[in-house]
Amino acid sequence: EYPHMAAIGWTVGEKVQFMCGGTLIHPKYVLTAAHCAVSVGGSLPSTVRLGDTDLNSAHDDHFAQQINIRKINRHPLHRFARSYHDIALIELGTEATLSTAVFPACLWRDEIVPNEPLRITGFGELEEAGGHSPTLQQGQVQLMDKEMCRNKIRVNRKIPDGLLDSQFCASHETMDTCQGDSGGPIELRRVDLYDQEHPVVVGVTSFGTPCTNGSTGVYTKISSYIDWIEEETKENFSYQNCVKKSGHRNVANNLLDPFNIPAYGHLLQNSSLDSEFNCAGTLIDDRYVLTSAFCVTQPNETPKFVYFNANNEAVQVDEVIVHPRYEPGNPTNDIALLKLSMYLKPNSTLRPICFEDTDTSQYPIYSFVFRSKLQSDLGNLRYSYHTKGVRRSFESCDDNVEESQICANNSLPILPGI
């Protein structure tokens, strides 16, 4: 469940003591807290352990990898006397071997941390001065309002300027990070267009109030340091790249035959496929395509052609007909028709779709999502498609949804930009 979780150890005598956590973000890099790059017994952190949920047991060691640390790079503004810019990158001596038990997490890039339950993990103390836990612990905390956090975390010599915008707080009545959890992840979960769930790390465990019921944790906000992380690693940590590199997705269950989407068309600005913009339409009879009014009313983006993957043909648009009551910026009546320049002859690969004419609210609904272009055996450019299951949900709709609209949602939000 947490293949990105790392335990950071110090070699003291003949033993390795694991006293901080971290997050695998790349086969070669682990993200942690800068204050973890401290000397213990005259030694800096020397090793990272991955894929292990019980540090004192060998029963799961066939998943584990213990890799020497090549270098620890603290953020240049971090000072040990302060708790600001508490973030560091560990460069591993050798790249981790990726598997279902060892795999990088995505990084949250948006400035705002979502106000939703956040997961915390670590091998830290289960109670104040109680000794580190050998087994990986998990918990759930809630983002705390900044003003409330300032009342909990008073200005002191470690944070003389109070909390910065690059820090945030989270808490729970009975759960919190504790001594030994430093450097570990605080995260949320998101899905991609394949319905595969991804851990997305929003922060690095930094410090907090003493570990008791209702204690407060302070975390370094990762989005404030994305530029530094990418500069130091020379890697691109975009959401798209993160999903693309996830080699353990199972997409077969929702991959559709590109020749078997008979009513689906891509809107083009000219007959070249390179002119496509992010809109599509549905063939509803032999001359009309149904689409969104939003898609046909954008400045300088009026569709001139519709490309049908089913027969590899771009058909010119004769007329754009927008619903008379549509107003830009208002989702009501967001519907339009495209009249094609020619009648299409239905066949086994190209045929109009049927309309729903009965109450089918008890059935699941699906949206088609265009994912990528691919080359067919005949050398023609084709597309791959996937289905995205959504649930009809009336409870989660606000009062602005009208009877002419369907409300649906996903079990988890989709990764931004995916």
TrEMBL record:
<dbReference type="InterPro" id="IPR018114">
    <property type="entry name" value="TRYPSIN_HIS"/>
</dbReference>
<keyword id="KW-0325">Glycoprotein</keyword>
<dbReference type="InterPro" id="IPR051333">
    <property type="entry name" value="CLIP_Serine_Protease"/>
</dbReference>
<dbReference type="GO" id="GO:0004252">
    <property type="term" value="F:serine-type endopeptidase activity"/>
</dbReference>
<dbReference type="InterPro" id="IPR009003">
    <property type="entry name" value="Peptidase_S1_PA"/>
</dbReference>
<dbReference type="Pfam" id="PF00089">
    <property type="entry name" value="Trypsin"/>
</dbReference>
<keyword id="KW-0732">Signal</keyword>
<keyword id="KW-0645">Protease</keyword>
<protein>
    <submittedName>
        <fullName>Serine protease snake</fullName>
    </submittedName>
</protein>
<dbReference type="GO" id="GO:0045087">
    <property type="term" value="P:innate immune response"/>
</dbReference>
<comment type="similarity">
    <text>Belongs to the peptidase S1 family. CLIP subfamily.</text>
</comment>
<dbReference type="GO" id="GO:0006508">
    <property type="term" value="P:proteolysis"/>
</dbReference>
<dbReference type="InterPro" id="IPR043504">
    <property type="entry name" value="Peptidase_S1_PA_chymotrypsin"/>
</dbReference>
<keyword id="KW-0378">Hydrolase</keyword>
<dbReference type="GO" id="GO:0005576">
    <property type="term" value="C:extracellular region"/>
</dbReference>
<keyword id="KW-0399">Innate immunity</keyword>
<keyword id="KW-0391">Immunity</keyword>
<keyword id="KW-0964">Secreted</keyword>
<keyword id="KW-1015">Disulfide bond</keyword>
<dbReference type="InterPro" id="IPR001254">
    <property type="entry name" value="Trypsin_dom"/>
</dbReference>
<dbReference type="InterPro" id="IPR001314">
    <property type="entry name" value="Peptidase_S1A"/>
</dbReference>
<feature type="domain" description="Peptidase S1">
    <location>
        <begin position="1"/>
        <end position="234"/>
    </location>
</feature>
